[in-house]
Specification:
single chain; alpha/beta; D-Maltodextrin-Binding Protein, domain 2; five-stranded mixed sheet; 41% helix; disordered N terminus
Length: 338
């Protein structure tokens, strides 16, 4: 029987080597994960987690699918079509309130600030949210900035129903504004770079929700309380894989965006790298996250987010400890960013 040097030295020292750490763990398979949108820069850390081995090293097999807006994603998770997903916290709070039950929970907060916005063209006369009264806004139905528009309206003292919504596909949203077929669009801040191929980035005015009274938490990892209770280890491993992938993406955005190019050679890697950098600066690498780490949430801010959404939609508010569950997070030391 041949004995390699590692085994011999271990035996001599009275130690037993069982191989790499992940060989010790039976992988959990078949987790279905829904993103909030198409595969763009801000979604690339999840592709990195799947294709770059971060989920594998965490001991879980995850199938990551694109999304069609947070509103659509939370519905799919609540229905059981997907197990876990990435969606706006406000959309999940709103869904819970409308169902009058705890249908969804957040287990990892990725966006420390919601990067929701309204975009319009300079010279449109729209300088603040109230200026949208009587205007037409184009967006997909599930877009989180559209879903949470009533919260923006309430915070700024106007009727959310005083605007006209134009339902468009994701691919047509920015062209509708560029062609002036709509006076504004609702979108995540990253959609600003979708105007780059149209040559009008410098003509776009961005009204960030965060600049108009909505200091709210944004996208996080969402699941159902039933799935979390039945599969706590799966949720923990998914969260661990996501946390390490986002740490890697923060350290090297280009490497994260490159996973999109690997899946689709037609992807503009430079554009998606810039898109990821934009969301990192606007929503992820806030002073609080740099100091305390990812998903180290403030209970008062979570409560503020819940209250703002519940009051705007006229629905019951879910308790903070019910809505956000920190017990699936790895140790705080594993959530630090550079």
């Amino acid at each position: 029987m041949s004995i390699n040097r590692r085994h011999f030295l271990g035996a001599a020292a009275g130690l037993v080597f069982a191989g790499p750490a992940r060989a010790q763990t039976t992988p959990i398979k078949g987790v279905r994960f829904a993103l909030d949108w198409a595969l763009e820069g801000q979604q690339s850390p999840f592709v990195l987690a799947a294709d770059g081995g971060y989920f594998e090293r965490a001991g879980v097999e995850v199938k990551v699918d694109r999304g069609y807006g947070s509103g659509d994603t939370v519905t799919k998770i609540a229905s059981g079509a997907y197990d876990i997903g990435f969606a706006d916290l406000g959309a999940a709070i709103s869904f819970n309130g409308k169902q009058n039950k705890l249908a969804l929970i957040s287990v990892f907060q990725v966006y420390d600030i919601a990067p929701m916005s309204i975009m319009t063209l300079k010279g449109s006369g729209i300088a603040k949210p109230a200026d949208l009264v009587g205007k037409t806004i184009a967006a997909p139905a599930g877009d989180s900035s559209r879903v949470l528009f009533p919260v923006l309206a309430k915070a700024n003292g106007f009727d959310a129903n005083a605007v006209t919504w134009m339902d468009v596909s994701p691919a047509l949203r920015e062209p509708m504004l560029a062609q002036k077929r709509a006076q504004a669009i609702s979108a995540q801040i990253t959609s600003l770079l979708s105007f780059r191929p149209l040559g009008i980035v410098d003509q776009v005015e961005v009204l960030k929700y965060a600049d108009f009274g909505l200091d709210l938490y944004g996208h996080g990892i969402i699941t159902t309380p039933e799935y979390a209770k039945a599969n706590p280890e799966a949720v923990k491993r998914v969260v661990r894989g996501i946390a390490t992938a986002w740490q890697a993406a923060i350290a090297d955005p280009a490497k994260s965006a490159a996973t999109l190019v690997a899946r689709d050679k037609l992807t503009d890697g430079a554009l998606e790298t810039d898109r990821l950098k934009l969301v990192l600066g606007a929503a992820v690498k806030t002073p609080g996250v740099v100091k305390n780490g990812l998903s180290q949430v403030d209970s008062k801010r979570i409560a503020k987010t819940i209250t703002a959404v519940a009051e705007s939609f006229g629905v019951p508010a879910i308790g903070v400890d019910d809505m956000y569950r920190a017990d699936f997070l790895p140790d705080a030391s594993a959530l630090k960013i550079g």
